[in-house]
Description:
The protein has 226 residues and is an alpha/beta fold. It has one domain (9-225): Rossmann fold (3-Layer(aba) Sandwich), CATH 3.40.50. The protein is built from six helices and ten strands, in the order βαββαβαβαβαβαβββ. It has helices at 18-30, 56-66, 81-97, 111-121, 137-146, 172-177; strands at residues 9-13, 34-43, 48-49, 70-75, 102-104, 127-129, 150-156, 191-197, 207-215, 218-225. The strands form two sheets. Strands 1, 2, 3, 4, 5 and 6 form a six-stranded mixed sheet that branches. Strands 8-7-10-9 form a four-stranded antiparallel sheet, covered by helices on one side. The relative contact order is 0.18.
Amino acid sequence: MSGAPSPPRAWLSWSSGKDSAFALDAARRAGEVEVVGLLSVVSEAFGRVSMHGVREELLEAQAAAVGLPLVKVRIPYPCPNATYERAMAGALERAAAEGVRTVVFGDLFLEDVRAYREERLAPVGFRGVFPLWGRPTAPLARAMVAAGLRARICCLDPRKLPRRFAGRAFDAELLAELPADVDPCGERGEFHTFVSDGPGFSRPVRAKVGETVERDGFVFTDLVPE
């Protein structure tokens, strides 16, 4: 008598931030998919994670710490949306060749973002999985901190969050100080994070806070491998 079928193989969209890390842990615990790789978008011009500005060395250290291979999608700067979509289509072709037809995302509640992802995946025979979807973000943020997730703000939009929060640790103190109109998880683009430790990490990724700069209307805090 044969056992239960294996869960479908999946890649996880890995931004280097807390939502990706918590989604990975949630997906692993649920067991409905087997996450076999991390999919990350990297800016060729800077050698950093797109939007978050995290160095490739730290991205690679994260992948090693969670025990998964890393698939980098390299894009130019600036990157028109059509160019981005061609790059992602190439990554999905590779995924399909490896028996992967599912992508896990850390999205929380933005319906338009989820719809865009699903609309791009469905025509090529893929599906999206959203293990954190719909969870109220205030208790979710507190749950991340309580679970031992360690992260730091690496990018923020100064139109939505004061520059003084750049480089801050994502912890209970930060959550208490966030302005009332800022989502506790930064889901509306207020801020992005780099996660250095937490559930599913075999070891912490050590990085120190470097220079904070403003570029293209966003504030970036460099995190330097120790």
